[in-house]
Amino acid sequence: MSLFDRFQWIPIISLPHRHDRRKSMTRQLAGLGLGGDPRVAFFDAIRPSSEGAFDKIGTHGAFLSHLNVLREAARRKVWVLVLEDDCVFRPEVADYAFPDRCDIFYGGWEVLGDANDPHTADLIGAHCMGFSPRAAKVAVEYLSSLLESSDPVVPEDVARDERYRADIRPPVDGAYVWLRKVHPELTTVFADLSYQRPSRTDIGAHKWFDRTPLVRDLAGMARRLRRSRSAKPRNG
Q1: pTM of the full predicted structure?
Q2: Which CATH number goes with the domain that contains 72?
């Protein structure tokens, strides 16, 4: 079974006014055989009026946008592939065989820090995320608890970290990492099939490394490197 054959709903989170990104995504998906596919639909990103329990309004909006998509997927009990409008697929996606056992699927990510294993590392990126019906239900419950509870369940390593602030909720990519740590019964599969365009998103807030001058420059270099890698044939 191919990647896209596995999913019954493929929503693309996008701000309504970003016609440029919507056109680009439409062209890209058409090239992958998904032109006019009824499973594919744009999902208007949420732009809240305040940052709420998050560090930025955009971070809050991205979190709510993903949560609302997952709520709908859980309600419909479907496999969902959540895309953001800056997702770019690598050529390998056409030949990818989706595994038989999977609850959460990462179609692209960046590792934060020195760790190399995505199963144990903190990850940046939620631009291509897949969920089984079971995982969508669990994700809705967990992400909702982060919004609604004053004392939500967090991973043990997070709770022990002196930098942890109970009054600030993580961005959605961080919340997915927490979800996997709190619910190890969910099987996660990683496949490096996509990357984000090397520009800062306007769906979510700028990541922490985009707000620090020196690290921001290094982050930009990393984005350009990933873009150059995507243009080259890859083996394995």
Answers
A1: 0.84
A2: 3.90.550
